[in-house]
Write a structure and sequence with these properties.
Helix content is about 30%, strand content about 40%. The protein is built from 4 helices and 13 strands. A hairpin with a 2-residue loop joins strand 8 and strand 9.
Length: about 260
């Protein structure tokens, strides 16, 4: 902990810099102004979130393939739809077999590296630093290729695979070609259950529709209606105010004298 001295006429002396009474009074004004600005910004964030929440609350909730297809035909608009996401056609690599919605093949090479390492030794009672070169090996990614199915179905309605953001990949296998070359495989299974939030229009859904794996409609609405944005803003804003006040104290504010 740092030490400070209180000067009756001047203020706090921290050694590197001094905080005067006038700077303390000025900083109170700075904090008040920054808090006011924060309230305005926070209000805008809350207003934006409320607008988004209104969209979510007004969205149609669908769990039937017939109503889903009808909604796309009649341009029903925003909708939460719960159902199974399936690959219509599947992809794979012969060496791993199986069927996948998406599969990635990553080539890695066992590569030699060197790095400079600092050491300390004591000579005649004095500490000295010297350096040596250390060798180490790592598996480095050198290239990759991927395959994705052409079509997927959601709640029995078929779309191009690009229409829906498919779930993330999971590790499948590693196959060594040699002692210095190997291939790692990652894939997405052929079927998942979850909810999409999209716009039903023009007999289709929105491009890049998000898919919420293993989430019911109610769980997805709750997730999207999170008010965490305002809390995160205030945490960051208070830290920013702290830095601003510290910077103000650190400056030579002779104009206040």
């Amino acid at each position: 902990m740092g030490y400070y001295h209180w000067h009756r006429k001047r203020g706090f002396d921290f050694g590197d810099f001094e905080i005067t009474k006038r700077e303390i009074l000025a900083s109170v004004s700075i904090i008040a102004i920054m808090l006011l600005i924060g309230v305005l910004i926070s209000g805008k964030i809350s207003e934006h979130q409320m607008d988004k929440n209104e969209i979510y609350n007004k969205a149609v909730k669908i769990q039937s393939s017939d109503i889903f297809a009808y909604g796309m035909r009649t341009n029903v608009g925003n909708a939460f739809v719960y159902g199974d996401l399936k690959a219509v056609d599947t992809v794979t690599y012969p060496e791993i077999g199986g069927e996948y919605m998406y599969v990635e093949k990553v080539k890695e090479r066992y590569t030699k590296h060197t790095r400079r390492v600092a050491h300390t030794k004591t000579v005649n009672g004095k500490s000295q630093t010297y350096y040596t070169t250390e060798t180490y090996w790592t598996w480095d990614r050198v290239s990759s290729e991927e395959q994705i199915c052409e079509e997927v179905s959601f709640l029995d309605c078929v779309f191009e695979s690009e229409k829906i953001d498919i779930p993330g990949t999971e590790y499948i296998d590693t196959i060594k070609e040699s002692s210095h070359v190997r291939y790692k495989y990652y894939g997405v299974a052929t079927q998942y259950t979850g909810t999409i939030f999209t716009e039903l229009k023009g007999n289709t859904i929105s491009d890049n529709t998000p898919f919420y794996e293993n989430k019911t409609i109610d769980e997805t609405v709750e997730l999207l209606e999170s008010r965490g944005g305002t809390i995160i803003f205030w945490v960051l804003w208070i830290i920013f105010i702290g830095f601003c006040v510290y910077g103000f104290y650190y400056l030579d504010n002779r104009w206040l004298e």
